[in-house]
């Protein structure tokens, strides 16, 4: 497994200006939990759901395409949807061919985004693992550059630029809550902060990849079910991020599908933010009370994706 010191603050800081022409500096919104029927509590929402391609994954996609040589066959990625959309967008912006493999659980909104960016889209397999295997076969037969959604150094470095941006926006926070699927996002962010703030992982009960890994002391297979299965349900957390998580992530909290749905609805009803289930999971931990802050604790929540059908709201 990766030494946690390989994904360094220096690498992340050096990458940030390289991807800056291609990614948005997303806004922060301060809310009061009193507006959600709870005791007054200021919470800062980092709205990475407003990033190009609808999620944070544009950062890792551009880092891969700028750092690694791209062959004539282009790039290939497997994705529940968001990573595929990000790779398709980055390839379109940089003039490369992209082929994206997605499982059958990927929602229509994400498939439409991928097609809209001009990528070749292949739908097949029940879950992310099957799409990943198909993408690996494609890479082997064509020579296309494979861009892994989370288990890739460049991906972790790219997602780490979000940690840099959060610190610039919110230098006084004590705690950051981050949703976890394969762990590329929290791995990059945790590598940036390197223990200087409390980082708490939030996962669906149906897909407890990091939670199970913490229990076992290593990445292990976990269920891949639930409402956020298109974005937070790989078989297991990434081998590269796990030592970083062991070193710098305080713990993983589990939230139910009902908690996530309630968070989605509350974000829309109270602040008019559209978030997909995976994007709302971290806020679900606060709204549901699964995360209980200490008195005076300064909390930030990452809202990381918005690729869903607005008609649902």
Brief summary of the model shown:
This protein has helices at 9-19, 58-67, 82-94, 108-116, 128-142, 153-169, 184-193, 209-216, 242-248, 257-271, 277-287; strands spanning 28-32, 42-47, 75-78, 98-102, 120-123, 145-146, 175-179, 198-204, 251-255, 299-303. The chain is α/β, with parallel strands linked by helices and 313 residues long.
Shape field: globular
Mean pLDDT: 93
- In this structure, how is the largest beta sheet organized? 6 strands, mixed
Total number of β-strand segments? 10
Fraction of residues in β-strands: 15-25%
Q: Low-confidence stretches at least 5 residues in length (pLDDT < 50)?
A: none
Helix content: 40-55%
N to C succession of SSEs? HEEHEHEHEHEHEHEHHEHHE
Strand order of the largest sheet: 1-2-10-7-8-9
Straight-line N-to-C gap? 42 Å
State Rg: 18 Å
Helix count, DSSP H or I runs of 4 or more residues: 11
Structural class: alpha/beta
């Amino acid at each position: 497994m990766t030494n946690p010191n390989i994904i360094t603050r220096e690498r992340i800081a050096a990458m940030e200006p390289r991807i800056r022409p291609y990614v948005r500096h997303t806004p922060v919104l301060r809310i009061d939990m009193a507006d959600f029927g709870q005791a007054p509590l200021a919470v800062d929402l980092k709205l990475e759901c407003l990033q190009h391609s609808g999620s944070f994954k544009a950062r890792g996609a551009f880092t891969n395409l700028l750092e690694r040589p791209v062959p004539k066959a282009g790039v290939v990625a497997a994705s529940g949807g968001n990573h595929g959309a990000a790779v398709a967008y980055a390839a379109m912006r940089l003039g490369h061919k992209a082929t994206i493999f997605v499982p059958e659980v990927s929602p229509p909104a994400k498939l439409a985004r991928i097609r809209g960016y001009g990528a070749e889209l292949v739908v097949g397999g029940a879950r992310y693992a099957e799409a990943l295997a198909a993408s690996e076969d494609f890479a082997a037969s064509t020579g296309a550059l494979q861009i892994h959604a989370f288990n890739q150094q460049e991906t972790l470095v790219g997602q780490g630029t979000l940690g840099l941006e959060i610190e610039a926006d919110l230098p006084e926070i004590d705690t950051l809550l981050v949703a976890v699927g394969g762990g590329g996002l929290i791995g990059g962010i945790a590598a940036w902060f390197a223990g200087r703030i409390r980082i708490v992982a939030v996962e669906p009960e149906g897909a407890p990849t990091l939670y199970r890994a913490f229990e076992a002391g290593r990445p292990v297979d976990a269920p891949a079910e639930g409402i956020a299965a298109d974005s937070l349900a790989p078989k297991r957390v990434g081998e590269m991020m796990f030592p970083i998580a062991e070193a710098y992530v305080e713990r993983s909290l589990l939230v139910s599908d009902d908690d996530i749905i309630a968070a989605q609805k509350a974000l829309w009803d109270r602040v008019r933010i559209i978030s997909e289930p995976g994007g709302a999971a971290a806020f679900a931990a606060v709204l549901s009370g699964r995360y209980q802050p200490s008195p005076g604790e300064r909390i930030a929540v990452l809202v990381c994706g918005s690729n869903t059908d607005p008609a649902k709201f």
